[in-house]
Amino acid sequence: MQLLFSQLLLGLINGSFYAVLSLGLAVIFGMLNVINFAHGAQFMIGAFVAWIALTQFGVNYWEALVLAPLVVGALSALIEVSMLRRLYKLDHLYGLLLTFGLALIAEGVFRNFYGVSGESYDVPDQLAGGVNLGFMFLPLYRGWVVVAALGMCLAVWFAIERTRLGATLRAATQRPDLVQSLGINVPLLMTATYAAGAALAAFAGVLAAPVMQVNPLMGSHLIIVVFAVVVIGGMGSILGSIVTGVGLGLVEALTKVYYPQASGVVIFLIMVIVLLVRPAGLFGRQA
Q1: What CATH number does the domain containing 176 carry?
Q2: 3-class SS string, 192-232
Q3: Are strands 130-132 and 137-139 parallel, antiparallel or unpaired?
Q4: What is the pLDDT at residue 286?
Q5: For the chain, what percent of residues have pLDDT higher than 90?
Q6: Is residue 155 in some structural domain?
Q7: Pair 267, 229: CB distance under 8 Å
Q8: How many domains does the chain fold into?
Q9: What is the domain extent for residue 214?
Q10: Are 13 and 220 in contact (CB under 8 A)?
Q11: Which of 90, 195, 200, 207 has its CA 20 to 30 A from that of 45?
Q12: Helix, strand, or coil (residue 75)
């Protein structure tokens, strides 16, 4: 039972990362119709910004949780204005190829300067240690990761689905000409949306830095699984990304306990089954 609960905790942590990353992808695709293959690189850059800020400038973990999303969001806004904006009216393949190329460039640059061995990022003092729950030992930082990730997911869902700003964003996606005629700066909304999706990836990168080694390949290891999560939940579905991300993290953990040989492919098997039964995804809408 102790092994089961520890694996479920690990699955919940992985599922939290899946949820935040797939949420960022869903926001960008749902609002901009861009398949952002650079999302894993933005996750990695967020972790490196936190590590560099700590080692070079003494910026602590809590400040990095704000700084890294701002830095990555600003860089992504520049990319959207200078490159992505030209591709919105073209086929999705062009945006995918562009962002895939940007991901390769970012990964190559960081590999050149920092190698692939990885850098360690210490857990903040306030979250060191753990709590004995009787049936398992819960590290405080891992519990914080789950709370922070799910809290961010719910905040983004509320902002998009239950606020006037979210309604304006959805309207700009469907009828940009009409929204523009009302005096709303649609290009600025698109830039802010892409920057916000990238900032979510950077936020997840800072959360992941004390859990996994900070290295240039950390994003590429996750992005394929995250894309599978988005497809299962439904491309562009905010709620689908959150629920599916957490659920698949737990399914992956249970598979490691009862049938470890299938743990690496169980998410992709589920994706195949969902695509056969419901091509739009569990929470997606038919075209």
Answers
A1: 1.10.3470
A2: HHHHHHHHHHHHHHHHHCCCCCECCCHHHHHHHHHHHHHHH
A3: antiparallel
A4: 60
A5: 64
A6: yes
A7: yes
A8: 1
A9: 2-277
A10: no
A11: 90
A12: helix
